[in-house]
Amino acid sequence: MARAAGVSPTTVSHALNGKGVVRRETVERIERIAAEIGYRPSAIARGLQNSRLGLLALVIRPFHSLDTFLPEGVDYFLRIAGAASLSAMERGYSMMLIDDPTRPGVPFSALAADAYIVTEPFENDPVLTMLSEQRIPFVTVGADPARRDLFPSIDEAAGQQAMTMIDHLSQAGAHRIALVTGTDRNDWNLGSRQALVDWCEARGQQPLVLALPEAEGEQVGERVIDHFFSGDPAERPDAVFCLTGRHAAGVTEAAIRRGIRVPEDLLVAAGSGAMQNRTSSPTVTTLDLRPEETAQLAVEVAVALAEGRPVQEPLATPTARLDIRESTTRAPGRAR
Amino acid sequence: MARAAGVSPTTVSHALNGKGVVRRETVERIERIAAEIGYRPSAIARGLQNSRLGLLALVIRPFHSLDTFLPEGVDYFLRIAGAASLSAMERGYSMMLIDDPTRPGVPFSALAADAYIVTEPFENDPVLTMLSEQRIPFVTVGADPARRDLFPSIDEAAGQQAMTMIDHLSQAGAHRIALVTGTDRNDWNLGSRQALVDWCEARGQQPLVLALPEAEGEQVGERVIDHFFSGDPAERPDAVFCLTGRHAAGVTEAAIRRGIRVPEDLLVAAGSGAMQNRTSSPTVTTLDLRPEETAQLAVEVAVALAEGRPVQEPLATPTARLDIRESTTRAPGRAR
DNA sequence: CTGAAAGCGCTTACAG
DNA sequence: CTGAAAGCGCTTACAG
């Protein structure tokens, strides 16, 4: 480019960036020639100056166990990703969706972001360890359960969200609530579990909790029913609260297959919604986690960190919205 | 790092990349120290060598007129983005979701991808012009209607997909099919329109076509009905084929509000599905464009281009799957 | 107003 | 086996 315009690289740089002092005509000539030959400064070379590319990365940790962003009917991750990409754009950043940046052989780019957003980190998550060791800015959505106040994080208040549902089930007539969590050791699973345990303790009940792999989706239905309904009839739950929508869908189906009526004999609810919960019969009550708002907040924080600006803590995700559906709505007078 | 290990940068580079010849012990020492101080080579500096970052970019052009990746109930774009990100990872690339890289003030990173995927480019799309001028590799999903064979593209066969639906409507009893396209001048809208025009011509009919903004979604319902049902009764369609699921949802609602029964008096179908088409009453027949497979193919091509490998043309998106629902299913004997 | 020099943090011939 | 030099494509003091 410098050669084409017959000037030095310095002048090209000055002219195109409006820095320094360059004669008007020179600027115009350089701009014209740049347009002609389709010259654009290399983003990489520019990034090298201040080690900033204007790039954010989103690491969706549950992907690790789920192996997809698109579990059938589950749009949570995609909604996070879409909203985060949008928010990033609005702030002049690009957003990159990556898997695990600690894996050997990741592309250069996976380590080149100015700041990272890590959703649902695991206990002692190696991704956070790496990021913090390298002093790369990051914010998590849901804390690392083992390092709660060590890193900037957006609190999910998993326990509080769980209580919203537990209260609802209780009001809907449940006396004995069983909880089905996933197996990932993240704040969502652990925090929700703790909330139920505390709640049961306060009422002198033994908590009924089962952890099953998120990835198994609807398939876990039979196992959940077997687990809670094969023992002492006095110990059977009258409500099952599954953290994932697909688990709840599977439980609902399995219950009905076994002749357990939903909601008459058993209330079922999910801590996060899947499409099938809106279309199944009965439809299933869920929590809408409002991932779009969470993503927006996360991007806001990530950008601040990338630019070295201070972040106002504490940060929290929006309160989940309770979508009450048939699975927890007993017709008055028809309750068992 | 070099200083910390008491060796030259060259040796560090050799040791960490397994290139050149370095004594075993030296390699080990360097690796140990690197681990200790959390040293990782800068992705940007490495990228500068071969101007490759291992970064792909996805430019979803309809975003321009839609202003969101998440129109209520429409998961098409997100499914493309999610699947593309996944496929990229599998091939050792990161995927970046960006808006319009030609806009002034875009982040450096938006111009730093090794190859671009542009979905649904517009006629004479400036994004393609810029990319081709700068000799940045790219592939489009759906051709630029004005430069059909100029750039590598994955053919959507919009006309063929439209014919699938037109044939279905015809078999379901339609004699007069109206088409509602979007207003973006892309291959999808233009190709589908052409297919209907040809089909009508072959049957000596005047084509009934209306283009309305994609972004208006369900709102267009009334306008579509007004447009096609206010004139000469002999000229009224007995089927409306909307390219977008939200348009179809709006048309179905509006028709019913006006006392036009669906499917008895009017068949309605959509060229791409939205959630509401599966849950409305009646449910609406749609085409499933299988965005995941399209995304996977696009990434495959983009990676090949980024690595300078030849691409096997012609390329085509998978054949859409027809999801037949109530809006085009007349009970036998009950048809008008 | 313009350009030669140094530097961003690495890698790659090449010389020792 | 190791390191000094050059270079990737820019930008930023600084000198002229």
Automatic annotation (TrEMBL), chains A, B:
Q: Does the keyword Transcription apply?
A: yes
- Superkingdom of the organism of origin: Bacteria
Q: Which UniProt keywords apply?
A: DNA-binding, Transcription, Transcription regulation
Q: Please name one Pfam family that this protein belongs to.
A: Peripla_BP_3
Instruction: Kindly give the SUPFAM superfamilies that the UniProt entry links to this protein.
Output: lambda repressor-like DNA-binding domains, Periplasmic binding protein-like I
Q: Does the keyword Transcription regulation apply?
A: yes
Ranges of residues in domain HTH lacI-type: 1-50
**PANTHER family, from UniProt?**
LACI-RELATED TRANSCRIPTIONAL REPRESSOR (PTHR30146), LACTOSE OPERON REPRESSOR (PTHR30146:SF153)
Q: What is this protein called?
A: LacI family transcriptional regulator
Taxonomic source organism = Leucobacter muris
Q: What is the lineage of its organism?
A: Bacteria, Bacillati, Actinomycetota, Actinomycetes, Micrococcales
